[in-house]
Specification:
Largest sheet: 10 strands, mixed
Radius of gyration: 22 Å
Strand content: 15-25%
Number of helices: 11
CATH architecture of the largest domain: 3-Layer(bba) Sandwich
Number of strands: 12
Shape: elongated
Helix content: 25-40%
Order of helices and strands: EHHHHEEEHHEHEHEEEEEEHHH
Mean pLDDT: 84
CATH topology of the largest domain: Glucose Oxidase, domain 1
CATH superfamily of the largest domain: Ribonuclease E inhibitor RraA/RraA-like
Number of domains: 2
Distance between the termini: 36 Å
Low-confidence stretches: 1-69
Length: 344
């Protein structure tokens, strides 16, 4: 049974102080969030760990304005996403075209589901989130960040690598400053609530206005919920908590991550609606949105027939039984597809 998203009403939130700063550095010297490594999550972590270890020598490019730490090299990113049919960002991350993202705004979870499992992608959907704006569709490109529970020896190594890349501290804002317009920040914070707050209202506002992000998905929490509730960007999170982010370490930026039961790759198209979130591989985006057009037209024609009051449901849905009606539907489908795709 599908677990519905839980709309969050700002009216239920406790009052917040008139002034609250974003979290400062944790005791480990990092204000970071990170992913867990409990037994349930062991298998997905091995993949990311192997990828990160194999890339360790080339992970950190010489310092640049957008240097990224603990990431795959461009060559490794291209190899990992070899089936991507589209252009790429400079770091190799797939870049699903804006036109396809716009078309996807009319899609439903069921339309995505109609394609992906048939292509053996069974672990791309997750639900059970609180949705900041349940009525607002979220569509964008995945920018992934992985956190793990803080460990001093690991923290020291990660910070040293970050500093070698010209990043003074490896914390949540280091990742936020790499976001591109149209990105959905997808964060594996291993379900952490207290100390697992990836952003508060100030950084949420930065994502929306300065970085021009398309949304946020965090398997963790957010803070300042009363403040972000008035902001228009979609967000999906497990809990809200007044704490600042602490006792965690970033272990990967734009690497494969786990969000609940879903495996998310950098550059996946992220589709969120009131039911949940689908992470669609770039190589299946075109087929998925094309199939959605067919489904929309099928539903349109079916309801036209039902509206006449002449037919039993089984005569029309899901396929017309009468050959004449089937021909009428086929002609309607062809005509409507030509109309829709002429303007795309």
């Amino acid at each position: 049974m599908t677990r519905a998203l839980i709309p969050y009403s700002a009216k239920t939130t406790p009052s917040r102080s008139w002034l609250r700063s974003e979290p400062r550095a944790s005791a480990s010297g990092m204000r970071v969030a990170r992913a867990s490594a409990n037994g349930v999550r062991a298998a997905p972590r091995r993949l990311t760990t192997l990828l990160l270890l194999s890339a360790s020598a080339a992970v950190l490019a010489p310092p640049t304005a957008h240097a990224q730490t603990l990431k795959l090299s461009k060559e490794e990113m291209i190899a990992l996403t070899a089936q991507n049919p589209f252009e790429r960002f400079p770091d190799g991350r797939p870049k699903v075209p804006d036109a396809l993202l716009e078309r996807a705004r009319g899609m439903s979870m069921e339309e995505a589901f109609a394609v992906l499992p048939n292509r053996n992608f069974h672990n791309q959907y997750e639900d059970g989130f609180q949705a900041l704006h349940p009525g607002k569709k979220m569509v964008g490109r995945a920018f992934t960040v992985q956190f793990m529970p803080a460990r001093p020896d690991l923290d020291a190594v990660m910070n040293a690598k970050a500093q070698a890349a010209g990043i003074p501290r490896l914390y949540n804002q280091a990742a936020l400053d790499m976001l591109q317009p149209g990105d959905v920040l997808v964060v594996d914070l291993f379900g952490k609530t207290d100390g697992g707050t990836i952003v508060g209202d100030n950084l949420f506002y930065y994502m929306m206005k300065s970085a021009k992000c398309a949304g946020l998905v965090v398997d963790g929490s957010v803070r300042d919920l009363e403040g972000i509730s008035d902001m228009d960007m979609p967000a999906y999170f497990r809990k809200a908590h007044p704490s600042f982010i602490t006792n965690v370490t970033i272990t990967g930026i734009n690497v494969p991550v786990r969000i609940g039961n879903a495996t998310v790759m950098p550059g996946d198209m992220v589709l969120g609606d009131p039911e949940g979130i689908y992470f669609i591989p770039p190589q299946l985006v075109q087929q998925t949105v094309d199939n959605a057009d067919v489904v929309h037209i099928h539903d349109e024609w079916t309801r036209k027939m039902f509206a006449t009051g002449k037919y039993k449901s089984s005569e029309i849905y899901s396929t017309p039984k009468d050959p004449a009606l089937k021909k009428e539907y086929d002609e309607y489908l062809k005509k409507r597809l030509e109309e829709i795709r002429k303007n795309q």
